[in-house]
Amino acid sequence: MVVDDLVVSKVYPHPIDNKFYESIQVRNSLTFDFISFMDPESPVFSINHICFHGSKWVTKDHLLKFRGRSIAIQGADSIRTDEVIEFIDNWLNGSNTKLEFMCIISHKKPSIVFNKKEIVERFNVFPWDPKKRGARFNCIQTMGMSSLIDPLDCTQGMDIERKSDGMLATIMMEDFHFRFYIDPITTT
């Protein structure tokens, strides 16, 4: 069966069998509300746009295996700063040219605060440069769950450049939000 968009909105007490997703081809987007677990090797992680709600089960393996265009993960209470750093490292040293956006939102718990200073110290980040890219990114499907600030204005973000192909990415962070935008236009 082929569908354009699929919304799964039921609490599943057990991991969802990959066979279900192998039998359905989702061409555009998949939204999940409150599932218990999904294997990082699932074909789901190649769908263009994914949005997860209630995602306490998401791990760094899910971030590293994602091969779609955009992913928004809300309630990702298990993702820590060191795993975000590993994700950024993976993007910088990889060849994923499809990814455009990743958003990770944890619930407001004091132990789940993304450490911006640690990320700034780890990477060669630089401020927005209007000569290199525009101030705003295009709205994509998973942008519906961002923050109180304008989620598309990246002028206050930290940019990094992938040396292998000149792609620019912008890192935007607040205590409980991590957003990663890739500008598909900035290749050298």
TrEMBL record:
Domain Sdz-33 F-box residue range list: 47-104
Q: Which InterPro entries match?
A: F-box_Sdz-33
Q: Which Pfam families match?
A: FBA_2
Superkingdom, taxonomy of origin: Eukaryota
Q: What is this protein called?
A: FBA_2 domain-containing protein
- Organism this protein belongs to: Caenorhabditis tropicalis
